[in-house]
């Protein structure tokens, strides 16, 4: 029996599909922007609830980021089942409502513990938005327009790292920390109204039973594992009891889930999808890329603020050229991904990112912004725009329509886990590098000791000979000595950052190996294989 004729899709990106893309982009911007906006607020949150004289430890306020990430990772595995059970439109609107309500609660928090709890609520909504958005857009676009539509979905992925630090710095400087959450209220209301209008009602298929055992293994496993990994920078070593205990327990649960997932007909995460070669190599490449790139991405604003003394707003503006570069290549790569195999596109993007990352290994304490740093970041952005969306397109394009939600879930989980691991690795390398740099560690210890006992400065200089040697060159000219010491420390810190960028560059270079296995020949899409044309109501393709 011949298969039913496939529904017709326009070749160009038309208004109907752009209307749907607008809903998804708005929701994704809220979710991704919030991750980077809160990062900027952490120093302010240390004194918000306890006052200037009694600041909270950084490790405590960092839980506002960790709690969101853990909630995000925990709920992502539910997306595939929930999309089939409740329908993508209803679930997407519920996710928007949950995220917006969580944002409002965060702004009303009166203690750090309340804020951490409400960030979990926010994360539960945010975790559904990205994989659901990919599912909605994939079903609306059809296989021939996937690359161009994925390029549109890439907009919020750029706006997060670029706009987050800028917006967060401005809101904190000009208004208050409450507004980094309150800004989501008008966005959330607008997104809900827009989604109700733009998304066609789809027919949920609640035929699948829920994998309760899979849920009991996978979600706590992910939460424990990511908590253990995210504790590495705070503990300073991977071998601490806290890291090994939580990460080990999480790993045991995840391994148990892998064995379990092949038994039920409809597992929480469908690992059988890895039989699809394109999906497998796209996810493996995305995993290594996300760990390396997002770990390295953390270094740039940190370098600008800690070494160069820039404020949060200025650091955000200086990172913007990276996003501009990505905005140039992303639509080009998206159009090419509809015509060429991604194995002929992605390696060029990865090679460009690797070149830029190796360029960052040369930074020091006074690297020229316009003469060196900004051009290198722009080059990295060009590579990023040519990499992320074609990889996602390759992963999703050869799945059938009913597999898209589960394939999107696998992609999002792998990216979330890889990002957490990459950030932890890079943070540990940087922290240990700064701690082991003699001048940096001596200057920090000298500053702390002399602040406590200013009358005993001369004897302290004997305990810290590298500091004493620099200050001694200027005799009684204390101002000149302090300036020279600051410059020397700045250069030493810059060299540590350069060495850490080298680790990130090596990690990115590994992606070129896995990218060699991406498809280099045109392969037929299976996106519509299980779609009955009678279910499709063009131009809005949702079933």
TrEMBL record:
InterPro entries xrefs: EmrB-like (IPR004638), MFS (IPR011701), MFS_dom (IPR020846), MFS_trans_sf (IPR036259)
Occurrences of domain Major facilitator superfamily (MFS) profile (ranges): 20-523
Location within or outside the cell: Cell membrane
Transmembrane segments: 20-41, 61-79, 91-110, 116-137, 149-172, 178-200, 212-229, 241-259, 279-300, 312-333, 345-363, 369-389, 410-430, 496-518
GO cellular component terms, A-Z: plasma membrane
GO MF term set: transmembrane transporter activity
Database matches in Pfam families: MFS_1
CDD domains in alphabetical order: MFS_LmrB_MDR_like
Protein name per the record: Major facilitator transporter
Location, primary (coarse class): membrane
Family: Belongs to the major facilitator superfamily. EmrB family.
SUPFAM superfamilies named among the record's database cross-references: MFS general substrate transporter (SSF103473)
Gene3D superfamilies noted in UniProt: MFS general substrate transporter like domains, Multidrug resistance protein D
Keyword entries, A-Z: Cell membrane, Membrane, Transmembrane, Transmembrane helix, Transport
This protein's record includes keyword NADP: no
Membrane topology of the entry: Multi-pass membrane protein
């Amino acid at each position: 029996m011949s298969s039913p004729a496939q529904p017709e899709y326009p070749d160009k990106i038309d208004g109907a599909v752009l209307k749907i893309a607008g809903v998804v982009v708005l929701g994704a911007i809220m979710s991704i922007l919030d991750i980077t906006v809160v990062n900027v607020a952490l120093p302010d949150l240390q004194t918000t609830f306890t006052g200037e004289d009694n600041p909270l430890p950084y490790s405590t306020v960092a839980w506002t980021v960790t709690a969101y990430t853990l909630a995000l990772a925990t709920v992502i595995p539910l997306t595939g089942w929930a999309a089939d059970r409740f329908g993508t439109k209803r679930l997407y609107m519920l996710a928007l409502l949950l995220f917006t309500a969580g944002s409002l609660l965060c702004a009303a928090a009166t203690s750090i513990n309340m804020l951490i709890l409400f960030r979990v609520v926010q994360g539960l909504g945010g975790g559904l938005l990205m994989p659901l958005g990919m599912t909605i857009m994939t079903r609306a676009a059809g296989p021939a327009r996937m690359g161009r539509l994925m390029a549109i979905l890439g907009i919020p992925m750029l706006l997060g790292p670029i706009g987050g630090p800028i917006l967060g710095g401005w809101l904190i400087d000009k208004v208050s920390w409450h507004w980094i959450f309150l800004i989501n209220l008008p966005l959330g209301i607008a997104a809900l109204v827009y989604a109700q209008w733009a998304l066609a009602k789809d027919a949920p298929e609640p035929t699948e039973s829920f994998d309760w055992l899979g849920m009991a293994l996978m979600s706590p496993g992910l939460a424990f594992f990511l908590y253990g990994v995210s504790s590495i920078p705070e503990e300073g070593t991977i071998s601490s009891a806290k890291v090994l205990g939580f990460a080990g327990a999480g790993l045991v649960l995840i391994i148990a889930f892998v064995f379990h997932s092949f038994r039920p007909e409809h597992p929480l995460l469908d690992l059988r999808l890895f039989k699809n070669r394109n999906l497998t190599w796209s996810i493996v490449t995305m995993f290594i890329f996300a760990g390396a790139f997002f770990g390295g991405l953390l270094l740039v604003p940190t370098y600008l603020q800690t070494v160069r003394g820039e404020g949060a707003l200025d650091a955000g503006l200086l990172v913007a050229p990276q996003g501009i570069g990505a905005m140039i290549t992303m639509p080009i790569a998206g159009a090419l991904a509809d015509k060429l195999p991604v194995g002929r596109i992605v390696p060029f993007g990865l090679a460009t990112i690797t070149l830029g990352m190796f360029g960052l290994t040369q930074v020091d304490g006074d690297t020229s912004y316009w003469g060196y740093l900004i051009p290198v970041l722009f080059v990295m952005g060009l590579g990023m725009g040519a990499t992320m969306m074609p990889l996602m397109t390759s992963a999703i394009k050869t799945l059938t329509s009913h597999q898209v939600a589960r394939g999107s879930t696998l992609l999002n989980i792998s990216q979330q886990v890889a990002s957490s691991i990459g950030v932890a690795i890079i943070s540990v390398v940087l922290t240990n590098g700064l701690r082991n740099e003699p001048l940096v560690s001596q200057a920090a210890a000298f500053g702390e000791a002399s602040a406590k006992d200013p009358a005993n400065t001369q004897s302290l200089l004997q305990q810290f000979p590298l500091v004493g040697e620099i200050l001694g060159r200027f005799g009684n000219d204390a101002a000149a000595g302090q300036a020279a010491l600051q410059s020397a420390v700045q250069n030493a810190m810059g060299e540590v950052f350069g060495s850490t960028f080298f680790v990130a560059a090596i990690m990115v270079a590994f992606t070129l190996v896995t990218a060699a296995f991406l498809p280099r020949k045109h392969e037929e899409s299976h996106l519509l294989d299980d779609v009955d044309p009678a279910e499709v109501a063009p131009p809005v393709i949702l079933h």
